[in-house]
Amino acid sequence: MCCPDWLGISAFWTNCVRFYDGGAVVKYDVAIIGAGVIGGMAARELSRYRLKICLLEQENDVAMGASKANSGIIHGGYDPEPGTLKAQMNAQGVPLLYEAAAELHVPCKQNGSFVCSFGSPEEDAAVEALLERGRANGIDGLSILTGEQARALEPNLSPEVTKVLNVPGAGIICPYELTIAAIGNAMDNGVELKRNFQVCAIEKRETFVLTSSAGERVEAGYLVNCAGGYADRIAAMAGDGSFTILPRAGEYLLLDKQEGGRVSRTMFQVPTKEGKGVLVTPTVDGNLLTGPTAGLVAGPDSTQTTQAGLAAVARLAARSVPSVDFRNVITSFCGVRSSERHGDFIIQASEQMPGLIHAAAIDSPGLTSCVAIAKRIVELLQSQGLTMTANEDWDGRREDPHKFRHMTQNEQNAFIQSHPAYGKIVCRCETVSEGEMREAIRRNPPAWDLDGVKRRTRGGMGRCQGGFCSPYVMKLIAQERGIAMEEVTKCGPGSEPLLGRL
Q1: Strand partners, 250
Q2: pTM of the model
């Protein structure tokens, strides 16, 4: 069976399926490993061209690694060392990300940030040095404020703060909604997503042949490694052992919306060699987020929170904003970001394996840089010989998944007349309707599990954390997917809430 003409596959492929050692292997121009924000944005950028592209993800949903567990900050560009890839991608990435967020209807806000000194000569000097570094990186609008000037803008800022770097270009964004939207838009433009595809072997013949742990095979002319914490393992499978990932865990405390107004900007402390330090920030959904810690861990799966780590988050966050009431914490979580010993991004064509592109060690400011990194990946593929013809049918816009909540009450009432499922509220904490949840289970990339519905709709993200609505959401997933309730999972195989029927 050949692919339809409308896909406009490059001349690299003469057939769509090859029978390889007795089994059928689907063929692609480009395979991307890792459906996080970098892999998702790379897929979206490549969908601008008439290529056959596959996005491979080992989990049951997209955005399951660091892309769902980070600070959600659009960094202002003052921190990276001038001349590094981080500095270049951050400066290029900020306007590109704001543009992509608008096209994809992803919640984001340019709220600005402060970097705070608490009066020591070392911290004061560090704030001044960050100002000069930001200017060297080409960042406009940076300035130094006194503590009094900063508190006039942010009254809840600690009285101990004496000097602040003001970064007006910084912002906040929902990282997992960005990833979901980018991949959904890529799929709408022809990209294929394969979930639960854990790559266990890579063989290079004329092309790359990837085998999953379940025995499924994919063949691709070019391979893009966006595997996050597993990027070094993927590189080694492909015959490139040039780098090693250092996984670093960050623990967070998320507070109820009644705390969301404590600050309007993102509050940083002076960064250390471990990272940008514990921040206090509003989220785009109105909560307050504090964290992260920064410590090396055994691997990318080491996402356990610790009593000591969360206590440190609360203590250090209170140093910046003493009035935060940590009795209003509604959940905690831990994300593992991927670093490398040289401290910079790895965005390059493999020197050992032609046709392999690495986008690895993408820690902070990776989220900010994601669109710029995706464009760099496209350039690297072109330099490796991939022929790219523009896809005239490409559409980078995505309908707003939250359009119902943005309607006036009269508009909602009129919409409910023809869409009655939107008139039934399932999640009371976040006021999410059945119609929004059903749409999330149908729309690219469709939600397959409870956490997938939660990330797309916020159903279950309120104060009760899904205690009330989860059984009904499970019923909706079972109905929409045509499966039994016992087959519905929280976050993929092995996390079934129900064991069986009585």
Answers
A1: 335
A2: 0.94
Contacts of 273 (CB under 8 A, 6+ apart): none
Q: Which of 474, 461, 458 is nearest to 177 (CA)?
A: 458
pLDDT digits over 174-197, tens only?
999 999 999 999 999 999 999 999
Listed in order, strand segments (DSSP E) in 183-328 are 192-194, 199-204, 208-212, 217-225, 246-255, 266-269, 279-282, 288-291, 295-296
The answer to whether residue 8 scores a pLDDT higher than 80 is no
Distance CA 105, CA 399 (A): 7
pLDDT classification of 24: cutoffs 50, 70, 90: low
Are 181 and 108 in contact, with CB atoms under 8 Å apart?
no
What is the C-alpha R_g of the chain? 23
Phi-psi region of 83 (alpha: psi -120 to 50; beta: other; left: phi over 0): left
Mean residue pLDDT across the chain:
94
75 is catalytic: yes
> In sequence order, which residues have a C-beta less than 8 Å from that of residue 152 and are 6 or more positions away?
none
- Within 10 Å of residue 298's Cβ, how many Cβ atoms? 9
Per-residue pLDDT, 184: 98
